[in-house]
Amino acid sequence: MDTFMTVRSYGRNCREANRLARKSLLECEDLISTTKENSLIYMLNEEPEKGVKTGVEICGLVDFSIKMAERTYGALNPVLFPVTRAWGFTSGNFRIPDEQEIEELLKLVDYRNIKIEPAEDSAEKAEFRISMKAGMMMDLGAVGKGFAGDRVLKMLSLAGIECAIIDLGGNIQVLGNKPDGSPWTVGVKNPWGGEPVCGIKVSDCAVVTSGGYERFFEGEDGRRYIHIFDGRTGCPVENDLAAVTAVCASGLYADSLSTALFVMGSEKAVSFWRENRDFDFVIIKKDAAVLYTAGLKGKIFFTAGTPAAVCVE
Ligand code: ADP
Ligand code: MG
């Protein structure tokens, strides 16, 4: 997943549990990587119309992504790969495609053209075929680390671990409390460096951040182009946000939300929260203003130097 990952578990069986966690993470890569040859998603993208056969786990993940795309009106879009690829975000050969090229590529990003159906030719009942229209390409990059995190925590839990903290490239997920029984404290990075903006006290929780400050390139026009895209324009997101941190029990849900809310911008993100209220967030705007949702009251504390944060009710 092109990032650093740390798994730290506590308890009697922790060495064996960590070994299983590593295995589980490597399996995720084999399933959902867009760039690893012969991964399931790689194969799907090679032959989208023919599709790939897979079990409930990946079908559930793709189905979840489609539902989140619907709920967020396409802010989260699991098939933006033709666009992000054209901008060079997979190869590192960054470029700015012209308007005509983008217009053509936008014809390929309609997530309603992903099909999941029972695989007829399968003896196993629980197998499905995922397919898409010709030219479409799936990228589960916005949900992959959350999916992997949930999978790893489940694995650790089954191995008898009650306390663990994992950091999958900035996606923090904790299992239970700290070994001393108190909640974990997760810091939210300052997008401009230095001390964290705040800490959040959590147990059994995911704290996932999306931002424009770590993966981007600078165009010849001097502008910064980030790795999170707006599926309506086919361009990197440019709005009032520097970073969004989503907080909830599920790593998958938190990961999908951090990306989707980032695409929405602060106003729409706040409305989305008010309509759903099944997660919390911390938003850091480009002007350094901080917003956090009411559910974090009593759990969030700000470091000196953070401008007065506003609680969204
Ligand atoms: P990160 O992977 O840096 O933690 P995200 O979870 O926000 O950040 O995922 C960003 C990745 O998701 C991008 O690298 C790209 O592969 C993909 N992506 C970009 N824009 C979108 C979008 N609007 N919807 C879904 N996936 C996206
Ligand atoms: Mg995400």
What structural keywords apply?
alpha+beta; T-fold; 2 domains; eight-stranded mixed β-sheet; 31% helix; globular; binds magnesium ion
CATH domain class of the largest domain: Alpha Beta
Bound molecules: adenosine-5'-diphosphate, magnesium ion
Taken together, the total number of domains comes to 2
- CA gyration radius, whole angstroms: 20 Å
DSSP strand (E) fraction?
25-35%
Strands in their spatial order, largest beta sheet? 1-5-6-9-14-15-16-18
**Helix-strand category:** alpha+beta
Number of helices: 8
Global morphology: globular
Number of extended strands: 18
Give the termini distance in whole angstroms. Answer: 36 Å
| Percent in helix | 25-40%
Tell me the name of the CATH homologous superfamily of the largest domain. Answer: ApbE-like domains
**What is the correct CATH architecture of the largest domain?**
Roll
How can the largest sheet be summarized?
8 strands, mixed
What kind of assembly state do the chains in view correspond to? single chain
SSE ordering: EHHEHHHEEHEEEEEEEEEEHHEEEE
CATH topology of the largest domain: T-fold
Low-confidence stretches at least 5 residues in length (pLDDT < 50)? none
| Average pLDDT level | 95
